[in-house]
Amino acid sequence: MALLSILCYPDPRLHTVAKPVTAVDARVRLLVSDMLQTMYEASGIGLAATQVDVHERLIVVDVSQERDQPLVLINPELVWTSPGKRLNEEGCLSVPGIYDGVERFDAVHVRALDAQGKSRVIEACDLLAVCVQHEMDHLLGKVFVEYLSPLKRNRIKTKMLKARREDVR
Ligand code: K1U
Ligand code: ZN
């Protein structure tokens, strides 16, 4: 297993649209275990392959308190969305230190392959639903700050670029 490095906003690679995974093989299973290790080490509740510069439709999620219920969603597709939406506070490992409200469906059903290549439908609500929608956006090249006003987004961009400059000094 290996720790992967996470792309930081406004890295343009975060806007790449991911392609479907063509086979759930040993390469994909190694990527899954590296992504899980990376997510746990960063204290995240989710991670999309896009964030580790792999542009394939794969996400990992664990919203459990005990950090022992990993979910692997390969080629995830929304098959049902609730009628209602709710504003939730979100964060992102690619935009460290920034939290803001984003409207998401209250609940979603997602069809995906698991790490064994088996097709499953996951019924998600609450934090799991929010996290899955956030991660699926990453696969479309969308970062949560794109839901915020242009003013807020530009302030975040400037802050991130300044932090990066200070980091390399
Ligand atoms: O995609 C990511 O970068 C992971 C992200 C997932 C996420 C968190 C909160 C709402 C939606 C999606 C994170 O894990 S951010 C860090 C975090 O652990 C966290 C932040 C806010 C609430 C709960 C957890
Ligand atoms: Zn994110």
List key phrases describing it.
single chain, 169 residues, alpha+beta, five-stranded antiparallel sheet, two-stranded antiparallel ribbon, 3 helices, 26% strand, globular, binds ligand K1U, binds zinc ion
How would you characterize the overall build of this protein?
The protein has about 170 residues and is an alpha+beta fold. Helices cover about 30% and strands about 25% of the residues. Strands 1-2-3-6-7 form a 5-stranded antiparallel sheet. Strands 4-5 form a two-stranded antiparallel sheet. Bound molecules: ligand K1U and zinc ion. The site of zinc ion has 5 residues, from helix 2.
Break the fold down into its secondary structure elements and pairings.
Blueprint: H1 26-41, E1 46-48, E2 58-61, E3 71-81, E4 85-90, E5 100-105, E6 107-113, E7 119-125, H2 126-139, H3 150-168
Antiparallel strand pairs: 1-2, 2-3, 3-6, 4-5, 6-7
Distance between the termini: 30 Å
Element order, helices and strands? HEEEEEEEHH
Measured by DSSP, the beta-strand proportion falls in: 25-35%
Mean pLDDT equals 97
Radius of gyration, CA atoms, in whole angstroms: 16 Å
- How many separate helices? 3
Ligands in the structure?
Answer: ligand K1U, zinc ion
